[in-house]
Every structure is written in C-alpha cells, then in structure tokens.
Design goal:
The chain is mostly helical and 204 residues long. It folds into two domains: 102 residues, no CATH class; 81 residues, no CATH class. It has a two-stranded parallel ribbon with strand order 1-2. The radius of gyration is 28 Å and the shape is rod-shaped. The chain starts with a helix and ends with a helix. Keywords: Membrane, Transmembrane, Transmembrane helix. This is DUF4760 domain-containing protein.
Length: 204
Amino acid sequence: MYKRLIAFNLGVILLVTAVYIVGYYFINYPMKFDLWFMIKECGLQYLAAVFVVTALASYLISSLDFKKLNFKSKFLSVYPLLNFLAMAFFIYIAAEEFIKNKKALSIQENHYIREAEKDIKNDLIVSRYSGFALPPQDEKKARLIHSIYRKYGIVLKNTGCIIDKTDSKAQEKYTELTDAYLEKRNGKGWKERMKKEIDKVEEK
C-alpha cells in the first residue's frame, strides 16, 4: 500500500513541476516556446519552497487524530491533495496572465494592421529595427542609403534598445501585410536588388 502511495505522490510532484514550468510560458506569452530556457528561468527554487510548505502543512494535518489511520498513511494521502491545490493555483495564475497577454497582443496586432493599411496607402513602409544608433560617420552616404530605401518604398525607424515581446510579435502582422505590398510594388527579388545598391554606396 505504501509503495503505491509513494509512487502516486512522486507522480503528483512531477505533474505539478511540469505544470509550473509550462505555466511560465503562458505567463510570458508570446515568448518563444523553449523548454530548456523555461526550465532555467521559471524559478524552480520557488516551486521547491512550495513543496516544503505543503509538506509542513501535511505534517501538521496528519498529526491530528482522525480516521484511525497511522501518521504515514495520513501524510501520504494529504500531501498530494495539497499539491493538487497548489497546481490548481498555478493553472489559475497562468490562465489569467495568458488571457491578459493574448488580449494585449490582439490590441497591438490591430494597431499594426491599421498602420500597415495607412502606410500602404501612403506608399511608405516603415522598417523597424532596434539597437543603439550611432551618428553616421559619412552623412552623404547615409543620405544616399536612405534615398535607396525610399526608392523601394521604405523608411527606417529605430525603436530603441528595449525589446517588447508582445510588440515584436504584433509587428509580424504589419510585416505580413507590407511584405506582400512591397513584393507587388517592387517586383520579385527586390530585396536583393536593394541590398546590391546599398552595398555599392557603402563600398565607396
């Protein structure tokens, strides 16, 4: 009997651990699903603390006199129950954050869809990039490069060093719509042609 209860408890601990790790993904949606990264970043030390707390609570409850069971049987019965409650809490938190993040993503996607429609109408597509932009050493070259981008219907925009995962994901909607437009506007292989023109300017 004890062997089955111990095996059941170990199974519950593994299940709670899996839910906790996967919950990190939903809390941080729309992050990329990377299991190893999630295991490293989810804070398993806090989960270990939860298991210690549920073990202490199970110890106290099992010390009470009820159901004519010995302490070991009571502990092995109460401990998985408390861990199931902890798992239910993890699922609730993850679901709540996922819904909130999903809603925020939908709002951002709609924003970029409207931006794409406006920019297509104006025939000037914004190409966003992140990072710290240094002043160009050769302003003449910089102007020529910008003029090449404009020739192909593009204007560059630095979004800064801070990368917001929700905003980055939402920008995919903008890119999806504008890439199709630029392909139609400039013809097939336009990116390669544009790069060659830019390379020629940079080589001077």
